[in-house]
Amino acid sequence: MLELTMAAVTAADAGATAGMQMAEAPSEPGAVLRVGRDKSLCRLSTPDDWLFVSRVHLEFRCGADGTWQLTWLRGSQPDPSSEVRLTVGGYARPVGYGDTVGLPRGGSGEILVQDRVEPRSVNVGFYHEA
Fold it and tell me: What residues have CB less than 8 Å from 21, skipping those under 6 apart?
């Protein structure tokens, strides 16, 4: 099971959990959870006017062996207007535009989507129940 919690945070909301959303999916091959502005495709959605987040920005997909991968999907622009970082066990690393990274089995962490222009972000916490 992969459990996600998402908070959309602006400078005014810093430290608050306004806009908290949750989603989960079983660790079965082909299971997918998406984060973005398009509510028809994404289980976790950001405000429509947050254009630094693509219609479908992040995709969590379960592989054949029950492990999960995170992909920062490429949008319609050649260069992104945000940055994505993955933090696991106190270690943070950038996720490249269009890249896919594995999530630790039985682990937890956070993905941060940071607007490059304004002080706002999307924080997605994850827990992979082994």
Answer: 5, 6, 7, 44, 45
Q: Which residue has the tokens 């079983």?
A: 26
Report residue 117 CA to chain centroid gap.
Answer: 19
Mode of pairing for the β-strands spanning 21-25 and 58-62? unpaired
Q: What is the pLDDT of residues 54-72, one digit of tens each?
A: 999 999 999 999 999 999 9
Q: What is d(CA 33, CA 14) in angstroms, rounded to the nearest whole number?
A: 26
Work out the burial of residue 78: count CB atoms within 10 Å of its CB; fewer than 13 is exposed, 13-18 middle, 19 or more buried. exposed
**pTM to 2 decimals?**
0.91
Q: How far apart are CA 88 and CA 118, in angstroms?
A: 25
